[in-house]
Design goal:
Rhodopsin_dom_fungi, 7% strand, 366 residues, alpha+beta, Rhopdopsin 7-helix transmembrane proteins, three-stranded antiparallel β-sheet, transmembrane, Rhodopsin domain-containing protein
């Protein structure tokens, strides 16, 4: 029987899943405007969307036929078993979905902050996130053993209320740490204060995910308190629905926020696009300064094209070229040319101004 709580669960979870799906579609479209292939972070966010959809669908099934939103004490024995089975399954969808979003964001940061390899701090966070994922998947699976004791009367083999709280707290700590990562990079950029604020505000939209995580933590603590109280039968069902409502919101909102920084190709003059170009230029300069590029080979490579600098720097590029930093696609302060073989930075010559030999037609749009 549908209740106001179950209807709220269905409507809210479906709404946020729809927004997350639109966000992923826009991300793929934006990616296709820039390149013809997807990166690792794109596949990770697609996988996160699938598991988030699994979570929402499971919650909707629970609201429709599993007794979600109905006082637990009013359920029959068979209905109570179905309720607990659905609750057990949805925990896995949640853990995997939020972990995949974190990994997607970290991979995006890694490509943004370095031209050749991920910074060490990114690898540290990737390892921590994978460790978090594996740890709580195992903890959830073995929270009560044998397995069927999750939906029948058995003595718990672990202190699962504490595990629920620990998973929520560590999830929030990871989100805050990952959200703060770009701040140090933005602070070092030579851009205006308004541009810095614009970039930080875009990345800062992830704060909504932390708000959703905090709300979920509050209801998780409520669920733990109800589990050990004398009013278990009357309040357990309501506490569960509140927790899984925010689980669905958090998973979908995380996907939504993770996609926002990827829309730069859709806005040619946005602060975010300037930030991404600046970060690529800086990382390219660090990784390939003073090293001429070699032909990358392959059937799709174009003939070698000479890059002519104003000063003493010069190099070569092959493959499809792209200019970062030059507003007219030909030159600019701090410009970096990216080709099929890698990056070339001419920043040493005349305060970073380099010139592309227009006779070979290397000019590309920004």
């Amino acid at each position: 029987m549908a209740t106001s709580q179950s209807r709220t669960l269905i409507a809210t979870n479906a709404l946020f899943l729809g927004l997350a799906t639109i966000a992923v579609i826009m991300r793929i479209y934006a990616r296709k405007q820039k390149v013809r292939y997807l990166q690792a972070e794109d596949y990770l966010i697609l996988a996160a969307l699938l598991f988030s959809a699994g979570l929402v669908i499971t919650n909707i099934i629970g609201a429709a036929i599993g007794g979600f939103g109905v006082p637990f004490s009013s359920l029959s024995h068979d209905e109570a078993i179905l309720f607990l089975k659905i609750l057990f399954i949805e925990q896995f969808w949640y853990i995997i979905s939020v972990a995949l979003v974190k990994l997607s964001v970290l991979c995006f940061y890694g490509r943004l902050f370095s031209a050749r390899r991920f910074p060490r701090i990114i690898w540290v966070f990737i390892a921590i996130t994978i460790g978090w994922l594996i740890s709580f998947l195992f903890a959830t699976f073995f929270q009560v053993w044998p397995l069927w004791c999750n939906w029948t009367d058995c003595v718990p083999t672990t202190n699962y209320p504490v595990m629920y709280v620990c998973s929520s707290v560590t999830d929030i700590m990871l989100d805050i740490s990952i959200l703060c990562l770009p701040a140090s990079f933005v602070r070092k950029l030579q851009i205006s204060r308004s541009q810095k604020l614009g970039v930080i505000s875009i990345f800062g939209l992830g704060i909504f995910c932390i708000v959703a995580s905090l709300a979920r933590l509050v209801y998780t603590v409520t669920l733990v308190e109800v589990s050990v109280s004398t009013s278990f039968g009357a309040n357990f069902g309501s506490a569960v629905v509140s927790m899984i409502l925010w689980s669905g919101i958090e998973a979908s909102a995380s996907i939504l926020c993770a996609n926002l920084p990827c829309y730069a190709p859709l806005y040619h003059n946005s602060p975010l696009k300037s930030f991404i170009n600046s970060m690529r230029s800086r990382s390219a300069a660090r990784s390939s300064r003073g090293k001429p590029l070699e032909d990358s080979g392959g059937s799709n490579s174009l003939p070698l094209r000479r890059i002519e600098s104003v000063g003493r720097e010069e190099g070569y590029m092959s493959g499809e070229g792209e200019v970062f930093g030059g507003g007219d696609g030909k030159s600019g302060v701090g410009t970096v040319i990216r080709g099929g073989g890698g990056y070339y930075d001419g920043g040493v010559a005349e305060r970073g101004r380099i010139k592309v030999d227009v006779t070979v037609g290397v000019q590309r749009e920004v």
